[in-house]
Design brief:
two-stranded antiparallel sheet, 6 strands, mainly alpha, 59% helix, two-stranded antiparallel ribbon, single chain
Length: 300
Amino acid sequence: MKTSIPSPPPEWAQFQIGPLTIHTYALCIIAGIVAAVWITGRRLARRGVDPGFAIDAALWAVPLGIIFARFYHVFTHVGDYFGPGKNLWDVFAIWDGGNALYGSLIGGAIGIWIACRRAGVRFWTFADALAPALLVAQSLGRLGNYFNHELFGLPTTLPWGLQIEATNPKFPPGLAPGTLFHPLFLYEIIWNMLGFVVLLLLERRFTLQWGRMLALYLIWYGAGRSFLESIRIDPSSDSFLGIPANVWASFGAVAIGLVLLIVQSRRHPGAEPSPFTRPDSRAVLKKKDADADTETKAAA
C-alpha cells in the first residue's frame, strides 16, 4: 500500500481503568454531547436565555436520544440482532457501535420539547441554537466509527483509502485482503464541519429563526448523508425498494427541512419577538441558577 489511511490498532477501541472497561466510541459520543451543550449555551445566551438551560435540556434530550438512536438502528438492521444464533443482549451493546443519528434526532427532539415546555422557552429558539452545534457533535461522534473500524464505503485506489483488516466481520466477502475503502466517517466529518461554517455564515446574512436554522441543518445533513449511504458497503440498514432505510431517512430529512423552511418563512418572515413563551420564564430560569449556586456553596 503506497499511501492509505491505517485503521487504529483494535486495542485502541477500549481500555481498562481498574474494573471498568472504557470504550473509545462512547468517549467520542460524550465529547460530541459536551461540545453541543457548550455551543448551544453560548448561542442561547445571545438570545437572552440563560446558557445553563442547555444543560437542563440535555438531561432530557441525551437519554431519550441514546434510547431512540439504538432502537432505530436495531430495527433497521433486524437481521443483525434477531434470528438463529443471534444474541439478544447485543441489542443493548451500544459500545460496539450502531447508534442511528436519525433515531437520536427523534428522541432528542422529544426531550428538548419536554424541557422547553417545562421552562417556558420556545422550542424553535432552542432548535435553532442547537442546529449548527449538532454538526460539530456528529463530527466528534464519527471518530468513534474510526476506532471501531466501521463506516466505510466502496473499494478505492485513492491515496486516502481506508485500511480494513480482512478478519473484520464487516469486511465484504469476496474482496482481496489489502483492499482499501472510502473512509465514509472522514467524509462525513468534513461535510459536517463545512456545514457548521456554512450555517453560521448564512445566519450572519439572513434572519434564521422560527426553526429556519434547523431546517437548513436537516437539508444539509440529509443531502450529504443520502450520498454517503449510497456508497456504503459495510453492514448498512435494511432496504425498501432496493434503497437502504438510512437513505430514505435522509430523503425524509431533506423534505422535512424544505417544508419547514417554506412554512416558517411564510408564517414568520421576521425575527422572534422573544425566546420565551411565558412572562415568568426568565425569572424561573434565573431562580434555578440561584438555587444551584446556593446548593454549591452549601456543599462547599
